[in-house]
From TrEMBL:
Annotated region described as Disordered, given as residue ranges: 146-167
Keywords: FAD, Flavoprotein, Membrane, Mitochondrion, Mitochondrion outer membrane, NAD, Oxidoreductase
Binding sites annotated in the UniProt record for FAD: R174, Y176, V191, K193, K207, M208, S209, T254
Protein name as it appears in the record: cytochrome-b5 reductase
Organism: Collybiopsis luxurians FD-317 M1
Taxonomy of the source species: Eukaryota, Fungi, Dikarya, Basidiomycota, Agaricomycotina
InterPro entries: CBR-like (IPR001834), Cbr1-like_FAD-bd_dom (IPR008333), FNR_nucleotide-bd (IPR039261), OxRdtase_FAD/NAD-bd (IPR001433), Riboflavin_synthase-like_b-brl (IPR017938)
Amino acid sequence: MSEKEVEQLCTGKLQATPEQHDVISKALGLPSDASDTVCLGRPLHGNPRERAHVRSDKIPHHHHDNIDATHLVRHARARHAEALKAGRTIVAHQGLNPPGVFTWLRLKTVFPYNDDTARFDFAFEDPEVISNPLVSSTCVVSAPEEKPLYEEPGTRPICPPDDGDEDGPIPVYRAYTPVTKRDSVGILSLVIKKQPAPPDTPYPPGKMSNYIHALQIGERLGIMGYLQRPPSMIPWEINQYDAVTMIAGGVGITPLIQIIDYSLHDPSNSTKFLILNGNSTENDIIMRDELESFQQKYPANFEVVNVLSRPPEGWTGESGRIDADLIKKYAPPPPAGLGLNALVCVSGPPAMLESIAGPREGDRYNGYTGQGELRGALKEIGYTAEQVHKF
Ligand SMILES: Cc1cc2nc3c(=O)[nH]c(=O)nc-3n(C[C@H](O)[C@H](O)[C@H](O)COP(=O)(O)OP(=O)(O)OC[C@H]3O[C@@H](n4cnc5c(N)ncnc54)[C@H](O)[C@@H]3O)c2cc1C
């Protein structure tokens, strides 16, 4: 098999036959009893200064999430190539090919939360697989050959996936956070919000989110995971912090849920988690049942406060936007000095991130490259940059 063919198989441009799949697995050194030890021991953190090659002159619109997804794919592939060259065995996470190669999973069930957001459970080929995602991590998804999805050259925010492929059709890559509940068997879960076309613009609705919402049960999606790369992901250890305050906006809650589910599920966990969960309306609160069940099961270690900017009549929760006063009302005060035993995580739309913690380093044209200076409400309250993580 030529390198080009392998590349096409890995990116979903070609569909692998079972024989080809075996050849690729052997070439990648995949053992039959894949375990997660290598992924856990050597998380795939990249060089935060690495920049994407962006054809910005040709592109009218840029979206940093898409750049992030392409970075993640490139970085995983580079790691993969490096390992192969060094003759190292690459170990995959359960049920998935190693980072760098897509695994084709079939949609099993859809659980709608509201009109635009749902949880999608994809079935592993082996129904016995316990997926337990790496924490914290993301996946990158891609459409399969039988129902491809490509970027429109020159109109989308893209870095070419690989040198020499700039003129061919570029598959759509998007990052989604795996939120599979700990110890779930045979499935990998993603919670995805359908992105509408921005009002009063000629732009089409979001490509991948609408594609996934239109998938039929049994159809396939390419999933590459579990991937870690700063500045979005944070390596996580049980009991690293005494108290963690999480400030979430909309679907930005997914990376926080991943950490909470992992931590609370561990019987030795003593970290106290608080989520300030910001949404527009009550209908927009996603994963509400999951959050409430954490609260019932772990009342000493978990609390959720829902904050609505457009509350219904009779709403007894908090309303308005999350700001310094609201954070001070619920969160423990910042520890003095550079004590690292308390952390605040912020995950939400860029405007929210900026008002609460200041923008990340980098820009939306080339992707974010670092955490950036701490500003906004958290700075006003007295937190230091070391006590804050911006997702
Ligand atoms: C690490 C990470 C984790 C993530 N986790 C999740 C998650 O768990 N769940 C989730 O739902 N999302 C998540 N995202 C966001 C996700 O990756 C996608 O960015 C999101 O789903 C939108 O992708 P899309 O293909 O649907 O939209 P895109 O096609 O990327 O479009 C995005 C928006 O831009 C508009 N648009 C299209 N063309 C133009 C143009 N020319 N000019 C201006 N605007 C235009 C579209 O209408 C749409 O509103 C995550 C992102 C990252 C980086």
